[in-house]
Amino acid sequence: MSGFVFHPGALADLAEIWEYIAADNPGAADRFLEEIRDAIRALVPFPQSGHRRPDLTSRPIRFQVVRDFLLVYAPEEIPLVVLAVLHGWRSPHVMAAILRERKS
Prior knowledge:
Layout: E1 4-6, H1 8-22, H2 26-43, E2 62-66, E3 69-74, E4 80-87, H3 92-101
Parallel strand pairs: 1-4
Antiparallel strand pairs: 2-3, 3-4
């Protein structure tokens, strides 16, 4: 058991990220997704280690930075639920809207 699951929206985020990177370098896309999975695996035993973003949501979800992306997850859920993988340069308003739609 992996200790985490992906929200369907997070799976769509990962597919979009992979396709974007793979257009230039499929191997790099594979490595980056593995880096994301490694970061999530590291969160499983320490789910409160991420930070909160009260500017984006009042929900008790946490954020962890991986390169230019934010992993968004529900630390209280078992298994841990990854809600989104968002590019950090996205508008905070857009991020907040995405998070409002994704429930764990």
